[in-house]
Amino acid sequence: MTTRAIPGRIERFIIVYALAWAGGAIAYTPFLTLLMPERIAGLVGPTRAVDWLSALAFCGAIAASFAHIGFGYLSDVTRNRRGWIAAGLVLSGGFLALFPYANGFWELASLIVCWQLALNMMLGPLGALAGDVVPDARKGTLGGFLAFAPALGAASGALVTWPGLLAMEIRPAIVACLVVLCVAPVLLIRLPPTVDHPVPAKGPDRPQRTRSIVVRMWLARLSLQIAEAALFAFLYLWFRAVDPTLGASRTAIIFGAVLAVSAPIALIVGRWADRHDRPLAPLSLTAAISAIGLVSMALAQGTAPAIAAYGLFGIASSVFLALHSAQTLRVLPRPSRRGRDLGIFNLTNTTPSLVMPALALTLVPKFGFSGLFVMLAVLAALAATLVPRRDP
């Protein structure tokens, strides 16, 4: 194979991989943001829906936390990432299709736990697969393409909740089929060669500096993800509080439009970071803009200001999270345990679901959503200060 062919294979893999990553977003975005809240609100009413959503998010986050680490580690040990991805794809789709038949709280909780276990059987090894074959010099571009995943996830939500298009009972099954279409190509494509990782430079302070950067990257993502998780769970209810005419379909359209705008921005910024060899520079800026967006949401009065404020937060936070996901791969210290270590990083995605219900139940009844958004803005500003200024 010529040296010119390898970069071409990497580019093709990045695109196919981004499609698979979008399949992961399609698997959970419409379900957690629209289908589950809409179903629960129909079962118990909007008032009790907050309590049920918080409890179910807690159960799912516990299952996802253990599953992502465990299956990531198993893919390290077996060196068979794509086998685990395929198994998780089949099982998670099956559990998702069963959702309309669960009516009680414990039925829903059991199904969500099983679905999260299967979903992370797919997502854990899938996350590590990119680190195996995408070189550091292309991580920014990878992050830019990953930003399209949330947009496609939101678009799928808008599609399956379009009024009169699909009956509620078949929506989860349609989502499962879309996931298969997106993930299957990465199971079939010929992979680029495994990346050769350079030997780290010697020095007595090298391990401490590397550890500090990893910890700061972890804490920065955790801080912003708490804000993202709160919006992920309660965006529909907040928009309904601002404007009762905003139903599930219109919320999905707004959500998707914001993410659609953020995706090309992330790609441009990611390519800039690759060209200028400044992989971490965009993260602080986008975290700070996210904080401004949350403050604007807390102050918003009326539908248009609320949508604009959410748009500012949504675009900035989406760019941050996509680029952070890719750049995390370059700071992990042990390529042989990449799946396990990414599972530990994934705690920044699942832990917020454990913290967020307590924040929401404490702040929303007393201060409304505005009080919650002010607290989340503080966390986003903290993320901006935590991002390291240089690589290990």
Overall description:
By secondary structure, the chain is mainly α. It has one domain: MFS general substrate transporter like domains (Growth Hormone, Chain: A, Up-down Bundle), CATH 1.20.1250. It is 81% helix and 0% strand. It is globular, with a radius of gyration of 20 Å.
Please report the number of helical segments.
13
Strand segment tally: 0
Strand content: under 5%
CATH fold node name: Growth Hormone, Chain: A
Overall pLDDT score: 85
Radius of gyration: 20 Å
Category from helices, strands and their pairing: mainly alpha
Keywords, separated by commas or semicolons:
mainly alpha, 392 residues, globular, 0% strand, single chain, Growth Hormone, Chain: A
State the gist of this model.
The protein is mainly α. It has 13 helices and no strands.
